[in-house]
Structures are given as structure tokens and as C-alpha cells.
Amino acid sequence: MYRTHTCGELNIEHTGRQVTLAGWVQTVRKFGSITFVDLRDRYGITQLLFGETLNPRLDQAPLGREFVLQVTGTVTERSNKNKNIPTGDIEITVSDFKVLNAAKTPPFTIQDDTDGGDELRMKYRYLDLRRNAVKQHLELRYRVNRSVRNFLDSRGFMDIETPFLIKSTPEGARDFVVPSRMNPNEFYALPQSPQTFKQLLMVSGYDRYYQIVKCFRDEDLRADRQPEFTQIDCEMSFVEQEDILNTFEDMMKHVFREIRGITFNEPFPRMTWDEAMEFYGNDKPDIRFDMKLVNLTGTVKGRGFKVFDEAELVVAIAAKGCSEYTRKQLDELTEWVKRPQIGMNGLIYVKYNTDGTLKSSVDKFFDEEQLKAWAAQCQAQPGDLLLVLAGREERTRKAMSELRLEMGERLGLRNKNEFKPLWVIDFPLFEYAEEEQRWVARHHPFTSPKPDQLGLMDDPSRYGQIKANAYDIVLNGTEVGGGSIRIFQRDLQEKMFAALGMSPEEAAHKFGFLLGAFEYGAPPHGGIAFGFDRLCALLGGSESIRDFIAFPKNNSGRDVMLDAPSGIDQAQLDELKIALVK
Amino acid sequence: MYRTHTCGELNIEHTGRQVTLAGWVQTVRKFGSITFVDLRDRYGITQLLFGETLNPRLDQAPLGREFVLQVTGTVTERSNKNKNIPTGDIEITVSDFKVLNAAKTPPFTIQDDTDGGDELRMKYRYLDLRRNAVKQHLELRYRVNRSVRNFLDSRGFMDIETPFLIKSTPEGARDFVVPSRMNPNEFYALPQSPQTFKQLLMVSGYDRYYQIVKCFRDEDLRADRQPEFTQIDCEMSFVEQEDILNTFEDMMKHVFREIRGITFNEPFPRMTWDEAMEFYGNDKPDIRFDMKLVNLTGTVKGRGFKVFDEAELVVAIAAKGCSEYTRKQLDELTEWVKRPQIGMNGLIYVKYNTDGTLKSSVDKFFDEEQLKAWAAQCQAQPGDLLLVLAGREERTRKAMSELRLEMGERLGLRNKNEFKPLWVIDFPLFEYAEEEQRWVARHHPFTSPKPDQLGLMDDPSRYGQIKANAYDIVLNGTEVGGGSIRIFQRDLQEKMFAALGMSPEEAAHKFGFLLGAFEYGAPPHGGIAFGFDRLCALLGGSESIRDFIAFPKNNSGRDVMLDAPSGIDQAQLDELKIALVK
């Protein structure tokens, strides 16, 4: 036994007790012949007092930051109490100590407010993990994990492990593949999700399944996307969409209550995909603030203003209380929408002044009455600023969606500690992939069309109209989960694969096991999967998932601490019967 | 909502209630105009009565086995009650029904006692999973998972996810590697265990870590070994071996109590590795029965019997009550030890007859008095049978260990529902790998030598004598867990790598991150990992781990249901910049 107590549990009640602690040296402060050391472990910090009698020995063992120390001593009431920490009323008057391990000076300070840059902290991740801020993130992740498990256990869901070495069935994102020494020239794939397995488990009668499980995508990496990520993966049998929405709304409420102490008394709002696109310009609306998109196309056309007349879409938002934006601020916004990521040619504004007058950047083409009509359509009040974009429909809607978020940010309407979840439902079944010139599944190929639209599956010209029993749960402008009611009939599944351009042979080769399973008594079923990393980040009030992963990869998919991926021996390649192509 | 109740919950209290159930048709029995159907779901079986008035409609919808059915009807008391199932007092008088999905006749019967062979059941695993026997295995696995988590949570262990895409560091078993499109010609490896990560987490101060996690080994497959398997992986800081043994003995007791209702009041026995080898011939003794190995080498040599005189080891067991074994039985045992897997040249026996006389297969060389001395040494009683093997030390000990288990089996001493756990401690640090002509780590290269034997690390000729703070937990002759106190000093870890024949450059290349971490304040730590699949199998009274895995691979590492591994497209290979070698 290296310790009798942790560094987080001693208080005034323990005064006079002899104790042994072990931990890391956080700080060393010398005052003449007396030395104070803050000793840190996972549970807290305790002040150690090395008095005069011990002093010679302490001098012989110079204590640096992050040294690992074991001390024995007596719990003593402190004269100078620290009310900020639970152990702040006491200190340990040290009678004996031992340096268990020395430490070099860390490359950055182990503090909330560290001086270490991103790359350095990734390289020494084991030191970064010591910082209190990072530890709190991992503790939150662990608590969310437990909270989710407890809820799902209580609802009769069974945790069933599905395999990691599966079959490559490229459709959508790219698979990571794994060569096999035992079966040369053949490859396993790592799962992008346990989708087909959880469906098979429903066919097997397991009724309610869950797993908190790693998934893998060999995708081009973007900021905050990891090649391996964790899902809360769930599936239920004999359910309709309503059952799933209710169950997982309950789960989210349970987690919010346990993790953040927030109680939602009302049902989460629901919005159709069409509504989300119309009013927010995207399918994951941030509803912490209003500022809805207003379509002005019909109102503004035909007045001789070429930009509007040639536009597929003219769309506006009303920014509350921004009528006094300066020229400089407006120029800045204009530059903002012209950036390549947004891609607009310009921004039109209308100031609805507090005195009721209106002033716009298009006064040459529109008189005050006309501008007033726009303002009315946007439900703007005196003091507001209308921002108007015009152009190709898809790009313009997307740009306005971004501008809305940007204005929300500038107006301080996106508080990280306010949570506004909602369901977005009735997603389109398909979307058209321009590059590939084919229809692809919006969610995945196992999603069922709405029953009353099954007929449209026979007419490719109407694929775009088909809606699915598919749903996302969106939190503060981020999709945290999504799912669907699945196809459970072989003929419909075959029709779906065909619609996606898969030949019957290809479908049989890739998904023969699932098609086969549907012939032996498949029940109606559906499910959902949550992005666990992202859910934890949002619950922690952060947007960076990397902060909530113990050992994340960088933006190039590298683990800079391990230096992985890396080259492997020729002998390993030979055994695997593969060769490198330079 | 497809149902108001499950097929497992209705009883006599529900009589008169209108209910809706959904599930699978287990059996259909017709009696004139009445049809009985047993409807099955995850929760149980309920009898349905299709009466006369419904009959025409039922005739139009021929119900086969495994059809998916939704029925509405009234809960009615049964005349012919079935006391074997919880719902046996009632049946549902069906008023309405719907076939939700038809089913082809399954390729084998969905019954405990199925007619399906192994390969067929693997191919249609989703049907095999419907069988009650298999479902109970997965339910047990889920219950063990929860039980372990609850225990570890209550002891302050944190579940922390470690990465799956790591660095290849071949040492011991082979890594599966994963080519990377983003980093061409470089490979990730899948973890054989999270060993180094859990050690880094200790360096980071997380104090108590656990994970129930998939691990991967690209090993030659043997019966009942899977390329992917699950570990309960744990690590603790500031502990000595005793702390770890106590903690995880408590965990095992908790699990036995919750899963099997078995209470262990006594501490688990502990045996040194030396004792295990001496008395049981292996390091995972089955102590459900005694029949210890007795070394007769000193006693039997020099009597002119060449087999003994030339042997490195002469070893015996006394099989209780077997003195009346027939010639045929003894011949059979002789053949058994001569099989290539055992590899002995012959078997010597001594019958200690119930009348006190002795009769042996070596009467020519040894008189009754001498045989009596052997019997005494083996603590044999009249009625027992001594079995003696002689030859090269290692092979002979191993053979006797196997023969002991075989005799235990024949004598019915290996009851699957009796549980005899024990700790085997003080493992050797190294073992000599004859093929490679070098020392390898018995447990792994991170295991610490016993502190008082650190000096021996400087003398390769004494490597064989060094014992480690390493321990296994053994249950009924199977290792279910193992671990060690780890090295936490850079210089000792470097010495260890050097002892294993690793150059400083190689050590730095493979494990630089760990050596580095040890310089920044690494605490003393140690841990353990349990084979979760095997633990579940043993708790379920089975020896086959495959029965306790939802989607196992076969003995060639193939998933015959998915047909994985399989070939991949040339386009995928091109993207990965690898080529196949034929």
C-alpha cells in the first residue's frame, strides 16, 4: 500500500491523523527553512509542509515539478486556509517522504492555462492528460457513458458486441481494410458502423440492442473529424418512428439531467426537413435563436435590379438591433460572404432605423415603401438590420444559413451552456450525387421510404420526392444522432439497391447475408446512432471533439505521440503477401 | 406500436384483457377447426388460439414456422395449463391478426436440440442466434459485462477508451496492420491489448482505469481461438501486487455471486508458479481434484530399468479407485499417451490392489517392496492405480499434466458447475525461445522483476532464475486473467528491452513514447486483463468461447455468414498504394 488516503479526501475532521499520500508535485514554495509542496493526484490537491527538522533531507532530494512523491505525516489545521479546494483547511506536516520517481521539467506547464501549443501537447499527450481541464473532459465522457448505459439497461436494451473484422462493402464512405495472413490476398474491413449486424440481431429476435462502439472511416480528414470515432448504436424491433423518438428523447433528457442538471419538461420540438431547409437553410438548425430565413424572391423580382432578377433565390434575415451597423461593419460582412467558403458575390442590406426610416444599399432600385414591405415580410422592427443574399438557390440558401449563424455568434445568441435540442424528421430518401451522376441514399441504403410513398420507388424521375422515415436529433446546430425505420422486406431492399445503381449480382455479393436474412422472418425494426464524441463535447460546452478523446489523431489522421501510422518491416509485408506501390 | 405486451409477461392476472402481441411462429398445431400457435419473442412464448370464427381467414394465410406475426386478442385462462413456462396459465383468443413477414423453412430447427451442423449454423448465424441456448449465452455475457462494470465503477475505476488505430510494434504475437490512404505506404496496427495506453494513463494520473475492449491477434488459429477477442482491461497506480490481487479477487467474487449465485467465503488459494509446475505439471492447474504429480526420479533410478535410468524425469499420479482397470483400459491409456499431441513412448502402471498386493508393468525390475515405496510416496491407498511416465523433463511433465486431466475427466472430477479459482503467482520473468535462440518475456516486456532480484538483470546467465511480480487467475484449469506489476523506470525498461535483444534504436523506434513518458514522473503501477470471452464461457459452464460470441469466426478466421475476409477492388488497392503478391 503506497497510501492511506488520496489527495482529495482529507479535511478538518482528520486533524491529528497519521496518513500516507502519494502523488505528483504541483508546486514547491520555499519560505526560509520551511517548504510547502502542493501534492496532486486524480482526486485533488493537498498541501504538504516540510518543516525545519526534515529540511536537511529535503535539501538532499531536490523536488521538481511533476516528481512522484510518497509522504507520511500528520493532518494539521492550516493557519492560512484555502476555501477554493475541499482540502483547503488542512495540510500534512511531513515526517517522512520518498521520491518514487523523478521528472524532467515538462515541455509545457501542467495547468488549465498551459503555455503548450497544440502539436506539443499532442506529442506529449500523457502530460496534457494531467491538466485539470482535460481530465474533466474525460471524466464527463465516462459519466455520459455510464448514464447512457444505465438508461438503456433500464429500458431492456442488451449490449451485444458485433465484430470489427468484417467484409468490405464500399457504399458511401471508404472502408479501412485489413490484410490477412491466414487468408492471403483477402481483406477484412473495419466497420463504418455496426448497421447490418444490429439489423441481423433484430432478425434474430434480440428486440432491443445497444453498443457504445468504435467505428472507422477512411475519409478525407477535416478539422475535428477522426478516422476512428465512437457511436452509441441502438436498434429496436416492432416499433414505429414514434416509439424510437420517444425512447431516445427520454434518453437525452435522462443524460441532460444527470450530466448537466437540466430538466426538459416539454417535448423536444420537431421540424420536418423541408421546414428546416426553408427557415434555417440547413438540416441541423441552431434554434437557440430565431432570425429565420425569409424568401423574398417573389417580392423583389421585376424591378430592374439585375442581381435579383437573375437570381434563383433571394433570401433575407432580420438581425435584431443592428440598424446602426457602421459602413465598416457592413463592409466586413460583405467580405465575409465573399470568402470562397461562402462564395457569394455580394451582400445587400436594409437598415430599418429606429426613427422608422429605411436606408438600403439598393435605394436606386427600391423605394422606401418597397423596403418596408420586405421588412414586414421579415417581421423586422425599427432598429433591425435586414441582410439579403441572392443567387443560385442551393448556394444562396447555404450562404444565408452560414450568415445567420455568424450573426447569431456576433449577437451572443449562441450560448454554449444553453441547450436547444430538436428532432428533424421526414428526410428525403435519396439525394442526387452530381459527380457520380446517380442517386445515393441520404441516410443509408437500409432506410425505408414512407409507406405511402412506396409507389414512387418504381419511377426514377420521382426519386427526389420520396421522403423516408428518417430522423436526426440536432443540438445547438449540430447533428448528434440520426436513424431511420429500416427496410425489412427482401423485395423492397432489392429495389433500393437497384435504385442506387447496384446490379443484382453486386447486391448479392455485398449484402447477400442481409437479403437472405430478410427471407427467414425479419420483423419491422428501426434504430438510431449517436455520435458519442460529439455528444460529449456539446455536453461539455465545447465544439472540439478532440478534447474529449483520450488519445486523438491530428488533422492528418496521425497519432503524433506514437508516430503512427508508420512503415512496417518487409517481413511483415511478405507474410501478408502485399507489396507497396511507390 | 406493434404490441401492447411481450410474449413473456402475460399471466392469469391479465385474464380478460385485450392485448396485442408480435413475434415469431414457433409451432402450429391444428385440431379440426381450431389452431394453436406458439408465438415467440426474446421474452418468452405465448400460446395463441385461432378459433372457429377466425378460421377462414387463417386458412387464407398459411402460417409457417418463423413467420412474423402480429395478433390482437383476449387473454383467456387455459384449460390445459403448462407449468413449465411463466405464461403457461393463459392463451390469447385471437380476434385479429396480420402476417408482418413470411419466412422460408429454416435450414435447421430453431430448438435447443437443433438438427443443424456447425458450418450450417455459422452460415445462418442470424437463425442460430434465435435458439434459446444461444440467446441464454449472450444474455449471460451481457449480465457479466454489467456486473463487472458495476463493480469497477463502485471501486472508482474509470472507463477510458484507447485507440484502435495504433503503431505496429511486433513483439510476441503478430499485429494486424491497416494500410492508410491518407498516409500511403504507412500502416496502423490494431492493438493486441491496450497495454501501453493504460500505462500512459497511469503516468497521466488517472489512477484506476478499465475498459471492456476488443483486441486483435493475427495468430495461427487453433480451435477456440479468435482473431478478435474481448478483454476486461484494468490498471491501477500506487499499488503493490497484494492490492491488485485483493481488488480483482473481490471482482471475481462479486461476479460469481451475481451471475451464478455462488458465494466464496474463503480467500482464493495462491500457488507459486514453481509449485504449480511441480504438482500439476502446468501453470493453470485444475484444482477441482487432487491427484498431484509426484516426482519419483530419485526413488526409481539405478535399478537397471533403462527407461527410468535414461529419463530426466520419472513422474507419477495415483488415480483413486482405479486398481481394477482392465488390460483393455490400460492399453487404451497407453495409446492415449503415445498420440503425437502427448508424445510419450509408453506408460507404466502399478495396481495397488484392494487386498494390499501390488502388480505393475515393471515387475521384472522392481519388487513389491519397492513398488510399495512408490505408492507411499504418492500417498496411494489400496484400490488406487499409479500411472508413471518417464522421459525428457519438459515433455514428460506436460504429458503427465495432460494425463492427470484425462483421468480427472474419466473419473468425473471435472464438474462444469463447480468453480475452483486460484491465483498462480511468482511467474518467471523470462523464458527461453529455442527457435529464436533468445530470451523472451514470459508475460510481456513491461513486467517488473521482483525488487530483490533486480541485480540478476545484469547477468544473462541468470535470466532464467528471475521471478516477476506477475500473476494469473486460473479457473478450473483455464487461465481467465493475468497481469503484473509494471516497470515504471526508464533505465530498467531499457535494460529489459536490451535483455530481449532489442537495440536501443529499435527500442526508441517502437516504444520511444513510453520510455519518454517514464521520464516525466511515472508512478508505480500494475494491472490485469481478463479474457472476457473465456470468462463468460466458463461462467456459462461451457468450454467453447465461440458459443458466447454473437458473430464468431470459424477456425480459419473466416466469417462464413459475411464471407469475410474477401477480395477487394483494384481501385481500393490503388488508393491504398498496395499491390497483391500472388
What can you tell me about this protein's structure?
Chain A is an alpha+beta fold. The first copy, chain A, folds into three domains: 12-101, Beta Barrel (OB fold (Dihydrolipoamide Acetyltransferase, E2P)), CATH 2.40.50; 135-270 and 420-549, Bira Bifunctional Protein, Domain 2 (BirA Bifunctional Protein, domain 2, 2-Layer Sandwich); 289-410, Gyrase A, domain 2 (2-Layer Sandwich), CATH 3.30.1360. Chain A has helices at 55-60, 118-123, 125-128, 132-154, 195-203, 241-260, 273-280, 297-300, 306-309, 327-338, 368-377, 393-410, 490-499, 504-517, 532-539, 570-576, and strands at residues 18-31, 34-41, 44-50, 68-77, 90-101, 158-159, 177-179, 187-189, 208-216, 228-237, 270-272, 294-295, 313-319, 348-352, 358-360, 385-391, 421-425, 430-433, 438-441, 470-475, 478-485, 525-531, 578-580. The interface between A and B is large, with 126 and 127 residues. Strand 23 of chain A pairs antiparallel with strand 23 of chain B, so a sheet runs across the interface.
